[in-house]
Design brief:
Helix content is 37%, strand content 15%. By secondary structure, the protein is α/β, with parallel strands linked by helices. The strands form 3 sheets. Strands 4, 5, 6, 7, 8, 9, 10, 11 and 12 form a 9-stranded mixed sheet that branches. Strands 1-2-3 form a 3-stranded antiparallel sheet. A two-stranded antiparallel ribbon has the order 13-14. α1 packs across α3. The termini are far apart. The model has no long low-confidence stretch (mean pLDDT 95).
Length: 385
């Protein structure tokens, strides 16, 4: 299909910590994607430049063929950098195809199974006053669910004082909002295996919606013991990058909710496959998304077509988004408006959002050099962020 031949690729590194890709076809139809590893934007940009040889001159219509070439065409496969580069390219190709065929992407994936998707957003998890204040703001905005970090820096075996502090914030929220508010707790991989069971003992009375990344993904074998120990749903997957990474935990049934990221786990094509795999094991999906508007829109298309999608994360107002937020780069912010705690089906073609390219070009001049902080415990030993 000559009119959809890919002629050019442009990259925009913009604050607060995002990288956008623009794929331009011969017909003038363009697609947008969000390929980034937080803190490694330049590395992913370099990877995309290396992959251009497999994209320029090819038709954007052949999404699956391009995906296979990008993934399997190199001897070394997988990992966050390659899969994030593929993710952004894949998102942009789906955007182009939807615009060319004049339908939203979810129609190309089999059609919607729901009319709206339940959303959650972040609140601060460190200070009790901030927890209550921010949760109250979100409830007034219509949200029915929030998530917060469960802990700050943690020792391999922490003091009882630190353990009690973890439970206090969710205790305050339960006292204030009862069970009208769902509360997710993100362990963020900060907790090591010796601490998990004790923390769960403290948290169980307050019945969180889920515990996210109770251990680092490289220690997923520990989930066998954690899963058998608690009735709190276990969620993980933001640092897993393909269907092959998810295969073992799905087969072993040691997780309740998987959280692939649309900008890290191979884009719309691959996360659609991962969601279907999870459904076969009766496991839910809640895509990870602390990133920008293109990543969020891509995640929502997966949610719209996946019967096992339960809730969607949004970074709107998250603490990372200083100076710029999700809607600052979007010409039709109404598409991402949260109404009664949900976002409704997109109406526009492709990914359903229009990017403000002038704003993007201005922000590209500013750029960013975001990196996650390096934490240390009181004794100077490295602590997981």
């Amino acid at each position: 299909m000559d009119e959809l031949k890919i002629e050019k690729i442009e990259l925009f590194k913009v604050p607060p910590r995002w990288l956008f890709i623009k794929v331009i076809t011969k017909s003038g139809i363009i697609g947008w994607g969000e390929p980034v590893v937080e803190g490694k934007a330049d590395t992913v940009a370099a990877c995309i430049k290396e992959l251009e040889r497999y994209i320029i001159g090819h038709t954007a219509n052949n999404i699956e063929d391009i995906w296979q070439i990008l993934y399997r065409g190199g001897f070394y496969r997988g990992g966050p950098v390659l899969m994030s580069a593929i993710s952004g390219i894949d998102q942009a190709l789906w955007d182009i195809k939807g615009k060319f065929l004049k339908v939203p992407v979810y129609e190309l994936l089999g059609g919607a199974v729901r009319e709206r998707m339940k959303m959650y957003c972040w609140i601060g998890g460190d200070n009790p006053d901030i927890v209550l204040e921010q949760a109250d703001q979100k409830v007034k905005q219509g949200y029915q669910a929030v998530k917060m970090n469960a802990t700050g820096p943690m020792e391999w075996v922490s003091s009882l004082k630190d353990i009690k502090k973890v439970a206090n914030n969710i205790k305050l929220l339960r006292q204030e909002f009862g069970y009208d508010l769902d509360i997710g707790l993100d362990f963020h991989g900060r907790v090591h295996k010796p601490m998990v069971k004790k923390l769960i003992d403290e948290l169980e009375p307050y019945e969180p919606m889920f515990i996210e990344e109770p251990v680092l993904s490289e220690n997923n074998e520990a989930l066998k013991h954690i899963y058998a120990y608690t009735n709190i749903p276990i969620a993980t997957g933001e640092r897993m990058f393909s269907r092959w990474d998810f295969k073992v935990i799905l087969q072993e049934g040691i997780v309740d909710i998987i959280q692939p990221d649309l900008s890290h786990a191979g884009g719309i094509s691959e996360v659609r496959r991962i969601a279907t795999m999870a459904e076969a094991y009766d496991i839910a999906i809640a895509p990870h998304c602390p990133l920008g508007p293109i990543s969020l829109a891509s995640a929502l298309h997966i949610d719209f077509v996946s019967s096992n999608a339960i809730i969607q994360e949004s970074s709107l107002g998250i603490h990372y988004n200083k100076g710029y937020d999700i809607l600052d780069y979007v010409l039709n912010p109404e598409a991402l408006e949260v109404k009664n705690g949900s976002i409704e089906l997109f109406k526009k073609h492709g990914l359903g959002i229009e990017i403000n390219e002038e704003k993007l070009k201005e922000a590209n001049k500013i750029g960013h050099n975001w990196a996650n902080p390096i934490w240390r415990n009181a004794d100077g030993n490295f602590a997981e962020w």
